[in-house]
Design goal:
Structural class: alpha/beta
Strand order of the largest sheet: 3-4-5-6-7-8-9-10
Number of helices: 13
Oligomer: single chain
CATH architecture of the largest domain: Alpha-Beta Barrel
Amino acid sequence: MTQDDFANDTNSPDSKKTPNPGKLPNRRKFLGSVAVGAGLAGLAAASAEETQLSAKLAADKKAKVDAVSAASKKFNWTTLKQRKGKSPKAKIGDVLLSRIIMGGNLIGGWAHARDLIYVSKLVKAYHTREKIFETFRLGEACGVNAIIINPVMFDIMKDYAKNGGGKKMQYISDCGAGELMTTIKKSIDAGSCSCYIQGGIADSMVRSGQFDRIAQAMDLIRKAGIPAGIGGHKLATIKACVDKGIKPDYWMKTLHQTNYWSAKPAQQHDNIWCEKPKETVEYMEKLPEPWIAFKVLAAGAIHPKNAFKYAFESGADFICVGMYDFQVVEDVNLVVDIFKDKKLPKRRRAWHG
């Protein structure tokens, strides 16, 4: 800016003495026009920046969608077309059961997930009534003919039978929904093919010395003409019942190895269900009653390929496994392979059932 420009500034001391002839812009107008021009240029630059940013965000979003789509396409689960056969079967009493029995916890929403507190709600949301029926139908197509359930699920089983479900899916009641004797009667009336005292309940009854009540429960179940069982998370529960001369028609006992990562913490935080697998295997080997092993996957911590073989090699006659629909065929295929090829070189216990 020249000195003449300052001379034409209306705010200068000499502005009144030297009026602006109109040929040169005064200082205020000049600075104002510069500011406005800069502002417009800034807006134009911001607009271009936003355009570029929007394009970048859109490209990123598309890339993420494509990545998710590609990942979902890779989720290939074993279908019925890949079924290797149907589950082998054996008897407990007069009831013919598949060697792999469905567990009802997932369908009922009781999901062991350690400290992931949202999982139970997620599992319930996934298992709509139709999804449950679909899982049952897949099981039946693979020869799975039984599920172990809590009495609160009886209505689901009745609905399944009424709405096109096959009659092959039997249910074993864990009698864990209220006062034991009352629940046993309710389970019998609902058509359960067998009843047993749920593991946690039996553990508690043994700790409090309720052996007479356990024996009475066995008698009540047998009077209905169906097999009576005793469950246990603790090996001490099984031992105590044997010591007291209580003989069920079968045992339900947890069994899994403890070499998975989340089993390592010393304190129990819903992360381990068979604390003494070696002792369990050695003790159960001596018992003549059929044995249904449960929690064999340690609530999803152990791969079925390893868990199933370990359970059968260790003496289990049946395994109870919670299965999503997309796991049914693969799980049954694993059992079919085990029994077909007899890959059980370490099994010492005789087969029962």
